[in-house]
Design brief:
Elements lengths: L13 H63 L2 H14 L5 H4 L4 E2 L2 E2 L1 H7 L14 H14 L7 H19 L3 H13 L10 H28 L1 H8 L4 H28 L2
Antiparallel strand pairs: 1-2
Helix pairs in contact: 1-2, 1-8, 1-10, 5-6, 5-7, 6-7
Protein name: J domain-containing protein
Length: about 270
Amino acid sequence: MTTPEPDQSQAPRPEERLEQAVRAAEQALIEYEIAVETFRVEVENFSRLHERKLGPLYLRIEELDAEIAEAKAARTGDPEDIRRAEEARARVLPIPGVEELLNGWMDGHGLFPEAAAMLTDQAVRPPERVRPSEEARKLYRELARKAHPDLAQEEAERQRREEFITRVNAAYARGDAALLKELAEEWAAGPVPPERRPSPAEELYARLEWLAQRKELLTLVARELEEGAIAGMLRLAPDDPDGLLDEIAGKLRSDIAQREAELAALLAQD
């Protein structure tokens, strides 16, 4: 008895199996991306709720800490207490430096010359012009002769030359002889040949590679979200995050009451 030969015509082609793998990977990536985005939105919303409910309480605690430190420093006059009071106040009201506030306009020594000129309607001194070297001038002239757009016979070639000459002009304006030399070598090498169209199998493999890279990126995003403080709080009470915030708020209010009592006691001693 002979065993019938399998019908080879029914076996899927390698490209078909690859297509199936790509479709499966695409669907898996879509589901994973949905999960990551859902988690990101949950973390972001909880972060906003956290800031709205607890932010004012944290600010009140910092303000009370500053006032307590200032009251102690006023009583003792101790340099160390004064330093602590100044640091506590700085945390409540950080004051940026002059340069941060007026970036590009002035520093600790006054207005920059350009800013002063604009405010007083004076002419702003133009930047110093670069005088190209003899080598740069020679390279520029040679490139302009070889790559001039008027030498093109077809519109595509004219456009290629115009784009190239724009780069040449920019390099010459900066007096960049090294870049002009690179451009000369690029022009001598000729136009880039048209890209070979990949085969269907190559396109599928490239798609699989992209999907793998995308999944790796999403994994990093998910890990960063999971390691954040807000996500850690969410894990403590996944079913009742609002209740967790209320519990933390109650603890903060208790801390505020203790600090207010401490501050009142310090002020009563004056």
